[in-house]
UniProtKB/TrEMBL annotation:
Keyword Transferase appears in the UniProt entry: no
Similarity remark: Belongs to the alpha/beta interferon family.
GO BP: any one term: defense response to virus
Name recorded for this polypeptide: Type I interferon
Species whose genome carries this gene: Notamacropus eugenii
Pfam (any one): Interferon
MF terms in GO: cytokine activity; cytokine receptor binding
Transmembrane segments: none
Alphabetical keyword list: Antiviral defense, Cytokine, Disulfide bond, Secreted
Keyword check for Secreted: yes
UniProt-listed InterPro entries: 4_helix_cytokine-like_core, Interferon_alpha/beta/delta
């Protein structure tokens, strides 16, 4: 996996690395917006459902992005 401790260091294509970092940064911004919306929400039961859905969507998007870039299996 990408974050495996036993991975052999590899030479990364700098263009692909920058694309990965930009994509991760964009996903982080989306997550921060989602979390900001959830903090302001009034109803606790709906808030927890929205937070769960936002996180699910975030990680699905991250997984699809990494698979598209062939960084994840």
């Amino acid at each position: 996996t990408l974050f495996s401790q036993n991975a052999v260091p590899a030479t990364w294509n700098q263009t692909q690395l920058m694309q990965l970092l930009i994509g991760v940064n964009q996903q982080l911004e989306v997550l921060e917006r989602c979390l900001g919306q959830d903090v302001e929400w009034e109803e606790p039961s709906l808030e927890s459902e929205n937070a769960r859905l936002a996180l699910k969507i975030y990680f699905q998007g991250m997984n699809q992005y990494l698979q598209g870039k062939e960084y994840s299996h």
